Request: fold
Amino acid sequence: MASAFLSRTLFAHRFVSSFAFNQKPQKLAPLFFKKPLHSWAFPSQSVYRRQTLVRSDMASTMVGSTSPFSTQSMSTSEPVVSVDWLHANLREPDMKVLDASWYMPDEQRNPLQEYQVAHIPGALFFDVDGISDRTTNLPHMLPSEEAFAAAVSALGIENKDGVVVYDGKGIFSAARVWWMFRVFGHDRVWVLDGGLPMWRASGFDVESSASSDAILKASAASEAIEKVYHGQAVGPVTFQTRYQPHLVWTLEQVRKNTEDQTHQHVDARSKARFDGVAAEPRKGIRSGHVPGSKCIPFAQMLDSSQTLLSADQLKKKFEQEGISLEGPVMASCGTGVTACILALGLHRLGKTDVPVYDGSWTEWGAQEDTPVATSTPTPTS
Reply:
């Protein structure tokens, strides 16, 4: 516990230090002052040249509407928004944008540093590894309700806000944070279709340095998590959670499902890892899969531009693997990140109650008493 506290303190120190080091002297003073999101400096109106709003399958009431913007009117049946839509609505005061980039350890990419180099204007940094359960050794497990509420409140997010989450790959870790908000009862959350790569490919501006407000909020979120897990008082809580247990599965629920088969189990890992012919990236984890589960690698939910496939294309993918969309489905992966991409795709198909096994294969494969199945790859002629 002490080491966790130290690591998060160092995170905040590096965040502030890195920011201060890269700023001109005259820009250091605002570091000590907070300002609300709607007062941030944004690119001039000339930058906002693309006025196509939402994708054609978003709520028609939002297209071309001249009424005041409100996230209350946004459709929650559709889990993604386009870069054009976000660009047109970026400066609305009840819209919060989060950079939730996270990468596999072997990629050797630092999401915080990349955020500071380039992010969508006004976006805040959401630390996937940091806003997590401090009582387990498993990576980025769901935090407690109190811890999540404290961290999100420190980021300046309220229940009335709409939240758009993106990442540096297109659709990857953003889906995890989309799922986290939904687990804690916040449905007005969407993933940016195509993420930062699509934003930049569309010619939209990025910020190349973190604002003083972003620095303070990211540090405050980190500190709030630590305080909750140390039993200390936190600042004002502006975000109230409503835990949705049906969206989260535990090891025991998955174990029971291997016998009862109440839910179709879909694994988002690569076919080689699922079959057990490729080693797991984390040491001490057996290779293979949960007996009775089926494999649909998360990449099959996306097209070449890393945007979510159409409903017809998604339906075909699941049906090809023998997944009936008429029955219950649950998802898992390596550490509970890419399983959320399966949940995102299933949400587009109207299945909004898909649980994710939070511990996923990292937990299951590390146990001594959990059954593991392997598959023999089909030989090529």
The chain is about 30% helix and 10% strand. The two ends are 54 Å apart (CA to CA).
